[in-house]
Structure formats: C-alpha cells, structure tokens
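batch job 7 of whatever, protein = Methyltransferase FkbM domain-containing protein
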Amino acid sequence: MVSPDSKSSAVKNRRCSPATIIITACLISLIAGFTHDRYFRDLKIGIFSLLSVSTLRPTSQQVSPPLGIQAWKPGSSVCLNTCSKARNGVCEDGRMNVTSYEVRLVHCDLGTDCDDCGPWTPSGPVSWSTSAAATTDKEALNTGPIALLKSLDIEVRVRRTRSTGPQFDFAFTDPAKDYDVSYHMQNTGGVELSITKIFYKIFEQKCRLPATDDSPGVPSALFVDVGGNFGWFSMLAAAMGCR
C-alpha cells in the first residue's frame, strides 16, 4: 500500500518547473511559426515575417502631414507672444545670456516670448508656430514642450555646457528631484564627463560640419544614440556635425 506522503511526493516530482514551462512554450511557438510558414508558403510568408513586412508595405491611403509641417518653410521665423510671461520685459525662453554659464529658468517655448526675446528661426517645423493662425485661445496656443512641462509643474532649467568639445545649451530640471543628470548639469555644466571625452574623440574623426568658405564639406556620419534617455550624446554629436 502506498502512503499519502509518497503519492504527494510523486505528484510534486511530475510537476514542471516554471523554466520548463517557458522553454516548452517557446519551442511550441517556434514550431508553430515554422509549420505555418511551410504550410501556407503559397499564400503567406510566415507569421513573424508577415508582421514585419506589413509594417513596410506602402498604404494606398495617404495621410496628410500635420499643419505645422505643411505651412513651414525653411528660414521662416516664429514670433508669437503666447507665453504667459510674454511682454514682461524679461526674455524667458532660455535664450538670454547665451554666452554665460549662468543657470536660467525657462518659462516659454522658443519664439513665444517674441517681444522680449526676438524672433526664433527653427531648423524644422514646430507645432506651436502655426497654431496662432488656427485659434485665438491663448491656452490652446501653448502646445510646445515647455508649456506642456509647466502644466505638469515640472521645472525646466538651461545652461551652457562646460565639457569637452563644442558648447551648447542643455535643458534639465530641478536637481533636487533629479540627482543624476540635472545635479551634474547644475553644478558642473556637463554629464558623464569621462565617457564624453571618449565620444568626443570618436565624433572628432567621424563628424563633419557643413561646407564653408574655408572648409569643404564632407558627408557626416550618422550617430544613433540607442537607448538615449536624456539626449546628452545626441546633442554633442549634432554640435560636432554628425547627423
């Protein structure tokens, strides 16, 4: 006669571990995908390939570009006074004292504090540049990133970098709430300075600035910041001429 404890032990031994279940499920999925590909070869190209190809297949339905992209022309400027702090005698879109290392609070999107800061010429279309023609609602006009962050009570600061390579303005937030990127930008004017020196050497060899009267243009390398979560190395690459 088999004791209850022996039966319980045998049942436990027959149970699959979580790892075994996961591996089995993966194998079943792979086999199913393979047989699906083989069986329906004349009709389809396999479930996984079908999904990837469908994202590349051109659609017959043409989607119109957003209003800002339609209306934007190279060289056109943005000059609005839709910021809540516009016309107060102080430039508050982050462009004041651009040669200074002083930390500046940003309250307005670029070009929305025009009387105090002057027009802003973007390098591409921006969502808030044409909204003035579409509405007279002052709140609706504030569609830029600074307006969005301020609506969420997120502080935006900007300062000129002091790290290796060309200098540029870099935005960050309250260092008391971000003790990493914002803390270092506030106090040192740079982020990950040791790694930045390495990237600077790479960019120096690969990136090329556009042609000028003194220098012929050379095609720039394409830099992809995979997993870039705060844009530091992307900004450095762009400042050095990379695409």
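notes: The mean pLDDT is 72.
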